[in-house]
Design the sequence.
């Protein structure tokens, strides 16, 4: 069994049991965004968190153990994503990436926004013209240092 086998087992069990990602996150005790990323093979669960996911989804012991192994991060099968929803994020970075970079450097100096010390919140925003997706991303600023 490998990490992708675990991801497939989680996806199948979640559907079979009729659970939402928020349901799983509540059981684990962390955000739906982080738990979903973990279930999709991108985060490392603690042994206790892995046990909760394993019990809830009735995963085999080997799958539960793999949930605690640091993953190879980056889950896209191609350099340019082909899924339309994921492609929009690629498009967003292609169009606004240089703007993000300039404004972050102007505000904070020479550095990056961490994707490790990071949080995200995704909520539905009602709008009469069609509901909107509101994603808030917050990453610690990490300045480049001289040495």
Sequence:
């Amino acid at each position: 069994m490998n990490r992708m086998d675990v991801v497939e087992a989680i996806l199948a069990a979640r559907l079979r049991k009729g659970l939402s990602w928020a349901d799983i996150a509540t059981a684990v005790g962390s955000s739906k965004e982080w738990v979903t990323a973990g279930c999709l093979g991108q985060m490392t669960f603690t042994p206790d968190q892995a046990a909760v996911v394993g019990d809830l989804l009735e995963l085999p012991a080997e799958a539960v153990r793999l949930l605690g192994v640091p993953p190879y991060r980056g889950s896209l099968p191609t350099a340019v994503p082909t899924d339309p929803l994921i492609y929009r994020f690629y498009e967003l970075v292609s169009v606004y990436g240089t703007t993000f970079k300039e404004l972050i450097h102007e505000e904070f100096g020479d550095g990056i926004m961490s994707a490790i010390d990071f949080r995200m919140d995704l909520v539905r925003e009602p709008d009469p013209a069609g509901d909107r997706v509101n994603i808030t991303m917050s990453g610690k600023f990490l300045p480049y240092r001289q040495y």
Q: What stands out?
A: The chain has a mean pLDDT of 95. The chain has two domains: 3-66, 84-143. The beta strands are 111-125, 132-143.
